[in-house]
Amino acid sequence: MKAVQIDESKHLFIDDYQMPVLGENELLVKVHATAINRADLLQKHGKYPVPKGASPILGLEMSGIVEQVGSNVTDWKVGDRVCSLLPGGGYAQYVSIPSDLAISIPDHFSFEEAAAIPEVFLTAYLNLFELGRLKENETVLIHAGASGVGTAAIQLAREFGASSIVTAGNEMKLAACTDLGANHVINYKNEDFKTVVEKVTDHVGVDVILDFVGASYFHQNLQSLNSNGRLILIGTMGGVKVNDVNLLPLLTKRISIIGSTLRSQTLEQKIYLTNQFKKYVLPLFTNKKIKPIIDSVYSWQEVNEAHTRMENNLNIGKIVLKID
């Protein structure tokens, strides 16, 4: 088969690669589309180690058609349309996946749309509801609201009855967040989000913060949380080291800080999360209440251009690669 590989200059190219081996509890899927995540950019530059046993090929999600089923698999058949999380390997013509991670693609969805679902919507669900314990009538502050995870989180918060305050870096991105249901939007380039949160919440603060930024937002995040607030850290785009940390607010406000990555979850945890997704989120897609937000679709022959678009923070939602 063919797969995207990385040369010494970090340029991506398509070349021959060994076919995945089908396990007895797995599906062999012919990949029709995959999507780009920031983890791909980090891995390309050697800053995101590949988990033990995972494919070194980039790509944390895919959509496609089942071509073979393992000997122990009874609930899927050849020809089924599926999408799935991956520990790696999505930038390739074929992947093998545990059958319990496969998600049936709604009939009205294209492969490009389906490929834009698994990583961001399972990440958003995990961090908002499983870890963040976001409840109806609570308020969540979502940083990087126009990102793939951000656009998913806005929609899920809306559908589960929570309010959202969202940060983004330009008016086009803010408008997109508003269209998805964000209750308040903040341009972080010319507004202090802590000040806006204080005003919007009448100095109460938010219940949950979903943060991709890390160090540079840490102090403001703590000040923006209410009592029993939960800070969910899922990225460190703004640095990894925080200076002059005052621990007192953690005690007096009973704040929880939780670090989270989806890729490092065990297979059992991913299966549990996939089942929760199928139960609570997939029906929202089927009923057309939520949708993946696709910024652009590239042929995988244009994978370098697609990476450049994300590296320059130009995307609103997901960048998808067609494996054509």
TrEMBL record:
It comes from the Bacteria. Residues 7-321 form the Enoyl reductase (ER) domain. Keywords: NADP, Oxidoreductase. Gene3D superfamilies: Medium-chain alcohol dehydrogenases, catalytic domain (3.90.180.10), NAD(P)-binding Rossmann-like Domain (3.40.50.720). InterPro entries: ADH-like_C, ADH-like_N, ER, GroES-like_sf, NAD(P)-bd_dom_sf, Quinone_OxRdtase_PIG3. PANTHER family: QUINONE OXIDOREDUCTASE PIG3, QUINONE OXIDOREDUCTASE PIG3-RELATED. This is NADPH:quinone oxidoreductase.
